[in-house]
Write a structure and sequence with these properties.
- The radius of gyration is 24 Å and the shape is globular.
- It has a seven-stranded mixed beta sheet, sandwiched between helices. The protein has a four-stranded parallel beta sheet with strand order 9-8-10-11, with helices on both faces. A four-stranded parallel beta sheet has the order 13-12-14-15.
- It starts with 11 loop residues before the first strand and ends in an 8-residue tail after the last helix.
- The protein is an alpha/beta fold.
């Protein structure tokens, strides 16, 4: 990732949905000002979701997603429709593209799925140039206040209405803009924050992982002072200070050692716990961690990661967590693992879901994963809260952030 790049998880994800040949790809190309998607009169030209990250005024950093038609047919068509539904899981904004003011039954079904997931959405009537040629009204924009649905008439061919669509999407995201920060809202100017970053076989060579980078930047934005140290050098770091640090943030997997080296009077938390608060699922994660104590014999535990990376011999998700869970519970759970955007549709078979900090996933995808677990009645937690619970320091490690939970 370039120093100038915005992480994918921090970009506004905008998905374009609709029937085949509604003009989704043409509209995407017009909105982005690029030939992002192939355009053809042949139905089903877009066979897989096409993604592109870019800067798009007035929205800023975005990821645009062009999807296959929701009315695709046959065995392959069913697979493409499933991929389209999966794309909805990551969307901050959904644009439903249609050719008519009156929606078809399939478009109504798609709109129902979008509403069910509570995604801000717009109904866009494309090919306005053709409608006007037939004498149709050129009103734009119009709001269906009864359904809470914004209707915009556009033309992917002429560019008519594209500016209004971009402005409407920008306003929608302003309403959803986060007030919470990763760590800056916990700090005052000139506070000292110590970041404990273990360097072991699982640490990426020559670089810091994303939550560590983001915490450093957020501390600077708060006007605070950051210090970075390893686990073994914590005592010397503390002795060198004229005053106690306002906060110590550690990698969760080092909780067992760090909790013994940082005096109780000094606030202590982890990158993973901060990320759970930032992503909006810390309350759920805290309840989920408690479920570790009541797991049945031969429990099925899903360990889910939002990123894909080469597994090291001491990988936290596939090696350390299973080992610690077995030692803590005295049982032999069965573990299943997922990574990247792969995540089970049906969670009913599991007794517990333990997720990573989700730094590589946007809020919408994290919320969808959490809600799937809640709907299935399955406890949902994350690495940091689970590890803190098993080390007996969940109360201490969440104390710095609990007063700031919404």
């Amino acid at each position: 990732m370039s120093l100038h790049d915005t992480p994918t998880a921090e970009r506004t994800h905008i998905g374009f949905f609709g029937l085949r040949n509604a003009g989704k790809s043409s509209l995407v190309n017009q909105v982005t000002g690029q030939e992002m998607s192939l355009v053809s009169d042949v139905k089903g030209t877009t066979t897989d979701p096409v993604k592109k990250s870019m800067e798009l005024l007035p929205l800023g950093p975005v990821t645009i997603i062009d999807t296959p038609g929701f009315d695709d047919e046959g065995t392959l068509g069913e697979m493409r429709v499933r991929k389209t539904k999966e794309a909805l899981a990551v969307c901050d904004i959904a644009v439903l593209v249609t050719e008519h003011d009156q929606l078809t039954a399939i478009e109504e079904e798609l709109l129902s799925v979008i509403r069910e997931r509570k995604i801000p959405h717009f109904l866009v009537r494309n090919k306005a140039d053709l409608a006007e040629a037939h004498g149709d009204a050129k009103e734009r924009p119009a709001v269906d206040s009864g359904a809470g649905l914004t209707l915009l008439r556009v033309s992917a061919k002429t560019g008519d209405g594209i500016h209004e669509l971009k402005e409407a999407m920008a306003h929608a995201m302003e309403d959803r803009e986060k007030q919470i920060r990763l760590v800056a809202d916990l700090l005052s100017p000139e506070d000292i924050v110590i970041l404990v970053i273990p360097i072991d076989t699982s640490a990426p060579k020559g670089r810091l992982i994303l939550p560590q980078q983001e915490a450093l930047r957020d501390i600077l934005d708060a006007g605070a002072i950051s210090m970075v140290t390893g686990v073994e050098t914590i005592p010397d770091t503390l002795v060198s200070l004229k005053k106690d640090p306002a906060l110590v943030i550690t990698d969760s997997q080092a909780f067992g050692k760090v909790m013994k080296l940082v005096p109780e009077r000094i606030p202590l938390t982890s990158f993973s716990i901060l990320m759970a608060r930032y992503k909006g699922f810390l309350k759920t994660a805290l309840k989920g961690a408690e479920a570790i104590d009541t797991l049945p014999d031969q429990a099925k535990i899903l360990i889910a990661e939002g990123c894909t990376h080469h597994r090291q011999c001491e990988d936290i998700g596939t090696v350390k967590l299973p080992k610690w869970l077995k030692e803590y519970t005295g049982k032999e759970p069965e573990f299943m693992f997922t990574s990247g955007h792969g995540y089970p549709e049906d969670l009913n078979q599991y007794d517990l879901v333990i997720h990573c900090g989700a730094c590589m996933l946007n809020d919408q995808e994290v919320a969808n994963r959490m809600n799937k677990a809640i709907d299935a009645g399955v406890p949902f937690t994350n690495y940091g809260t689970a590890i803190a619970h098993m080390n007996g320091i969940l109360k201490r490690s969440t104390a710095p952030v609990l007063p700031y939970l919404a």
